[in-house]
């Protein structure tokens, strides 16, 4: 399902890492092969090696272009590149007969096979390759002469180590790309999970969480807190007169009024439908009523979409010892009910 819904250019796609790694690998071959050809030509006039290296360059360039055109062929190209690199290292080891520290290149095979073929096939191919080389060494070693440490051996070690570092860097780079991408997605999902899609305020999930958190804090310390429950008066009339869409716009505008009136420590959210809840830390009932009145008046004086005028009723309740979220909500609900019953567009505290 993941590969169907994601593109090969997305770090979430399992093929992404392989494509990036393949490109890096082919680039290394495209750069290193002609360099080695020049060195071999100048130092040893070894025309067979030069021809092999130029052939390798041509194959790598061809595979690179194929991959650019058809990234979906990544699996076939992965196998071809792994076999190509294994063959080149094998030929080099056989030709060198233990000279020039050619065996050092063996270190490159497992990371290449692992990154391109995955855990199981990578392990199998690496094991088969190493077994083959060790069998070859055990049969031919008797005929080998001691390998002196020469400039050639040093060059081999430097180039193979550089290739290894670049390969590992690309493995790490694609891993961290994927991690970064997933992290961003998970942050986005977290935010979606606690946000009301219409108003952009917190939703009930977050309000419940914050309410419980405030209750725990209030029980442990002397810091009280209050909540206000806000319900738009006769909102059904707005919907019936202007339509549901206009009703939605009014809800968004009301959310904006709340957002701009609350203190930075307050938490405002949509409790459901046309009801909003504001959590006011470190405040007594009287302070919260004052705060609520400012908001109530702001709503009553605001000209909403199309000049619509609305009012809202406010219930206020403060934490008391022994409260849990149900008792507190029941109290604030009762206060709001009373505000409605007394004629609406008012604040009642319980
Ligand atoms: N446009 C819109 N309307 C909503 C939404 N959620 C709830 N409502 C409407 O809010 C109205 C609530 O109606 P009632 O519960 O009868 O309350 P009221 O008309 O506000 O009257 P009082 O609360 O008694 O003052 C209903 O018409 C719902 O359809 C929403 O997301 N968008």
UniProtKB/TrEMBL annotation:
Enzyme category, top tier: transferase
Family matches, as Pfam families: GGDEF, MASE6
Its EC number(s): 2.7.7.65
Keywords: Membrane, Nucleotidyltransferase, Transferase, Transmembrane, Transmembrane helix
Cofactor requirements of the protein: Mg(2+)
CDD domains to which the protein is assigned, alphabetical: GGDEF
Reactions performed catalytically: 2 GTP = 3',3'-c-di-GMP + 2 diphosphate
GGDEF domain boundaries: 223-350
Gene3D superfamilies linked to this entry: 3.30.70.270
GO molecular function: diguanylate cyclase activity
InterPro entries referenced in this protein's UniProt entry, alphabetically: Diguanylate_Cyclase, GGDEF_dom, MASE6, Nucleotide_cyclase, Rev_trsase/Diguanyl_cyclase
SUPFAM superfamilies: Nucleotide cyclase
Residues that span the membrane, as ranges: 21-42, 48-67, 74-95, 101-117, 124-142, 154-171
Protein name per its UniProtKB record: diguanylate cyclase
Organism expressing this protein natively: Pseudidiomarina piscicola
Name of the encoding gene: ydaM_3
